[in-house]
Design a protein that fits this description.
Elements (H helix, E strand, L loop, with lengths): L3 H11 L4 E4 L6 H10 L2 E3 L3 H13 L4 E6 L7 H9 L5 E6 L12 H14 L2 E5 L5 H14 L2 E6 L29 E2 L16 H8 L7 E4 L3 H9 L5 E3 L7 H9 L6 E6 H6 L2 H9 L4 E7 L2 E2 L5 E2 L8 H7 L4 E5 L2 H9 L6 E6 L14 H13 L1
Helix pairs in contact: 3-4, 3-9, 7-8
């Protein structure tokens, strides 16, 4: 029986892969179905989100693999370089290479054909897998991805799956409730209906000072730029993963960690960052990890790039966005008392705290420890 899909997944299991994330591709639809049956699997809303989620899994000691099509690499390059590669985290990419074999969609040709050059120019190692005989390349290279903490891309030619005897077993039944059936939201403790009408009074630095005592013994992932520098100034802990790049990746990283450990995870995100990858809120709502809290400090501005206004300052209500994506327990806070009460009510399930703030940064120095030391300290905390 010719089953190249099963052969590939056997190799992955032998190499220790234990965490998978994917976006759909028609050429590997049967493979993706089998991935979902064989591994802990995260269906993604966007490729870039998957890089962050897999980074969180890798920080937690897992061995992640992503399955995407070639066009999706264009949505991931910055995150791959400024997050996965920068922090020396392992990630195996299995890329359905479009535009190279019996391609019927003309729009797939440019990215599919240029993909090797793009990966080469980005410094990402790759292997071309044209037939199942090339699986020996995967067997040789995949273990090194996880032992040395690097990225490797495997370009899967659609010819691999021709004449495969593997068949889809999925049956779509319409009219049945979805796994993520909508339920009315439940306010966090400390939520105030008046908060929606309150004017924010405190800058992000003052908010970080207020919540600092409630971060003790929790895994914390903090937004890049001034938020991380301010949090370090408030009080450094080895349990904090400071983002130094990859805007929009904070909540995905925290979600990946929360799906991999039992410790309570606190994400400190911002309005500009959340607006870059809002689909992650849907992924979080789908899994609803009971140990994850997303604290969105919304000051209506891009604080680290000159305080340019974000749309959250004019027309977007982030709490309403979170509810719309399926997060049930949400609240909006505008005072320190409301914020502290919301933080103290942790440990009851996935939560979204929308903290209103005024723009402005504290004059604090850069974080004095290297990005690799940040990673090592945080990974050690997760293992403790």
């Amino acid at each position: 029986m010719r089953n190249p899909e099963k052969e590939l997944l056997t190799i992955l299991k032998q190499a220790g892969v234990d965490f998978a994330a994917s976006l759909p591709c028609e050429k590997i639809k049967v493979l993706l179905e089998m991935v979902g049956e064989s591994f802990f699997h995260v269906p993604l809303t966007r490729e870039e989100e998957g890089v962050g989620i897999c980074a969180g899994a890798a920080l937690s000691g897992r061995s992640p693999a992503m399955f995407v099509q070639s066009s999706g690499i264009g949505n991931m390059i910055n995150a791959l370089l400024s997050l996965t590669s920068f922090y020396e985290l392992p990630l195996a990419l299995f890329i359905s290479q479009r535009g190279v074999y019996k391609e019927k969609i003309a729009a797939q040709l440019p990215m599919g054909r240029k993909l090797p050059d793009i990966l080469r120019g980005s410094g990402i190692n790759f292997s071309v897998i044209s037939t199942p005989k090339d699986y020996s390349l995967i067997q040789r290279k995949l273990p090194g991805v996880y032992s040395s903490g690097r990225i490797h891309a495997f370009l899967l030619n659609p010819a691999i799956w021709e004449n495969s005897e593997a068949r889809s077993r999925r049956r779509i039944e319409y009219g049945k409730p979805s796994l993520c059936e909508y339920q009315a939201s439940v306010p966090c403790e400390g939520a105030s209906t008046a908060a929606a009408r309150s004017r924010p009074k405190y800058r992000r630095f003052e908010i970080l000072q207020s919540i600092s005592p409630y971060l003790e013994s929790k895994a914390v992932v903090c937004n890049l730029g001034f938020p991380s520098k301010e949090l370090y100034s408030v009080g450094h802990r080895q349990s904090i993963f400071y983002m130094l790049g990859s805007m929009g990746m904070v909540t995905p990283i925290g979600l990946g960690i929360s799906l991999s450990v039992t410790k309570e995870v606190i994400v400190i995100d911002g309005d500009g960052s959340l607006l870059m990858n809002p689909g992650t809120l849907a992924t979080a709502a789908y899994f609803a990890p009971a140990n994850l809290t997303v604290l969105a400090i919304d000051n209506g501005s891009y604080g680290s790039t000159g305080d340019q206004p974000t749309l959250a300052g004019s027309c977007v209500d982030l709490e309403a966005v979170a509810r719309g994506f399926g997060m049930r327990e949400t609240c909006k806070v505008a005072t320190k008392k409301q914020l502290v009460e919301a933080m103290k009510s942790g440990g009851r399930g996935l939560r979204f705290i929308h903290a209103l703030a005024v723009p402005g940064n504290e004059d604090v120095p850069n974080i004095p420890i290297s990005h690799i030391e940040i990673k090592k300290q945080f990974a050690a905390f997760l293992k403790s």
